[in-house]
Write a structure and sequence with these properties.
The protein is 80% helix and 0% strand. It is mainly α. The chain folds into two domains: 105 residues, Rna Polymerase Sigma Factor, Chain: A, CATH 1.10.1740; 92 residues, Arc Repressor Mutant, subunit A, CATH 1.10.10.10. It starts with 8 loop residues before the first helix and ends with a helix. The C terminus is likely disordered.
């Protein structure tokens, strides 16, 4: 019996190109730890490293038809991870700059620890809401919101109709809204208290 570790990358890539999900899982298991460690060294942030792993392998799956043309898959994979990490770090820097600007222009928001906690809470609420979606809805939402793909691009990538994409997104947004809405008032109260006392 052939063990997973004995299957070459080329064989797995050929399978993935043909839509073999088992081959994709095998490749994911083979490289997940390496990409996570690499991303963690770059960012020193476990959450960012986890997100990079997800984004990298999502791209592998979306680009599966082109995998056969990649000469050095390992180098290609690390390049994607590096570029994605740099994008995320630049985004973090922009967000920090925005927070610094708010601090300078409004003394009410001097206590960034509380603001950071509120932001974290919002992120956790969104994550919990996304967990309620079906895998297909999560994928479509991710392609639309995180990767900026248009409905038609998503439809072509997933081989489904634009109406199906739209239906999934509408449902996803409804689930997210229903999950987050009860917490909005609490968040607004928290922000008001920060403005009042700081």
């Amino acid at each position: 019996m052939v063990q997973k570790q004995d299957i070459s990358d080329l064989t797995l890539l050929a399978g993935i190109s043909a839509g073999d999900e088992a081959a994709f899982r095998c490749l994911f298991d083979r490289y997940r730890g390496r990409i996570y460690t690499y991303a963690l060294r770059l960012s020193e942030n476990t959450s960012l490293a986890d997100e990079v792993v997800q984004d990298v392998f999502l791209k592998v799956w979306l680009k599966r038809k082109d995998l056969a043309a990649i000469e050095n898959f390992s180098a290609w994979l690390y390049a994607i991870a590096r570029n994605r990490m740099f994008d995320m770090l630049k985004q973090q820097a922009r967000e920090q700059q925005t927070r610094d600007t708010v601090q300078q222009e409004g003394g009410h928001y001097a206590n960034t620890t509380e603001l950071h906690l509120l932001e974290k809470e919002q992120q956790l609420l969104l994550r919990d809401a996304l967990a309620k979606l079906s895998p297909r809805q999560q994928l479509i939402y991710n392609l639309s919101r995180d990767h900026g793909m248009k409905h038609e691009e998503i439809a072509n990538t997933l081989k489904i109709s634009r109406n199906t994409v739209k239906t999934h997104l509408v449902h996803a947004l409804r689930v997210i809204k229903d999950h987050i809405s009860p917490y909005i008032n609490a968040l607004m109260i928290g922000i008001s208290l920060l403005a009042k006392f700081f």
